[in-house]
């Protein structure tokens, strides 16, 4: 009976650490991967996406592992599904597409994303460009 108690007291902290690790790291990452996969599967012609490299492109055609995308009026390319960061509409819904710049006084500037609080305020000197 003493050995079972010793084993339980030894393993209990490890089990607790594993559970903490799972709920703080593994589970949220899996949920994010699932959401990203669903977003990629839901892309259709005409959707605007942002690539991992920061390019904003328009989806022309979905293929097995690639998307045919339009970079501009004259240029099309194939993009691997692994390099899609997010759909541009998602940024617009979050209010991250265009920040609202607010100027307060002559030496203080702040930028605000719609639906959030002011992100940063700082003093600037009059000879600093912005």
Automatic annotation (TrEMBL):
Protein name per UniProt: Sec translocon accessory complex subunit YajC
Family listed: Belongs to the YajC family.
Membrane topology: Single-pass membrane protein
NCBIfam families per record: yajC (TIGR00739)
UniProt keywords, alphabetically: Cell membrane, Membrane, Protein transport, Translocation, Transmembrane, Transmembrane helix, Transport
Chief location of this protein within or outside the cell: membrane
Native source species: Helicobacter pylori (strain G27)
Family annotation (InterPro entries): Preprotein_translocase_YajC (IPR003849)
PANTHER family xrefs: SEC TRANSLOCON ACCESSORY COMPLEX SUBUNIT YAJC
